[in-house]
Write a structure and sequence with these properties.
six-stranded parallel beta sheet; alpha/beta; globular
Length: 227
Amino acid sequence: MTTTLVIGGHSGIGERIVDDLHDNMTIKIDWIYAPKQVDFDVTSDESIETWLNNNEPMDEVVYCAGLQHLEKLGALTVNALNIIDVNYIGFLRVMNVLAQKQADHQTSVVAVVSDASRVAMRSSIAYCSSKAALAHAIRCAAREMAPRWRVNGVSPAVVEDTPMTDYIDRMVPLLRGWTPERARNYEESMIPMGRRALKGEISDAVQYALRGPEFLTGSIMEITGGK
């Protein structure tokens, strides 16, 4: 029996991962947990500790919690700190509690990163830097927790039909003075495949990283359409 925790599993990519994990249950019986934010708040050590202490060790952990709020330098607000807290520090909190609770338990961890970890974006300094920090935290954790744990990342470009993408689609035209069509055409012109990623494609990559080769650890799998 495999127990899987999907943090951020109630919307966007995380919700699709939960659905696909349920659909892909074949030979083995899985227990899939996707706690609500009120029960598992990545900005609270107490919330994380309480939930993990009240449940059996997790065989698989998917970290999909993420925030984005477009703000230019010179006009940054507390939103920038919240982005870093959720996207990066929350991952550290979760990993720290897991390491205390189940260091000797064979565990596979996958975090959803972003191509923003290596591609500079306007009005996104907090988001880009938080994802860059997350990517390197994955590599550090993989080295420290081996060989009992595998820790990997999946790094997509813009993903179609998620709350975060819907927000970006509303805000970028306003910030750039463009029509939505011009903003979308510009974005897709930067992607050799000519389109956005699909949630199912990211879910497939996450499942591969979770349950793929034992030797796969410390890797950031890019799903960017060649960007």
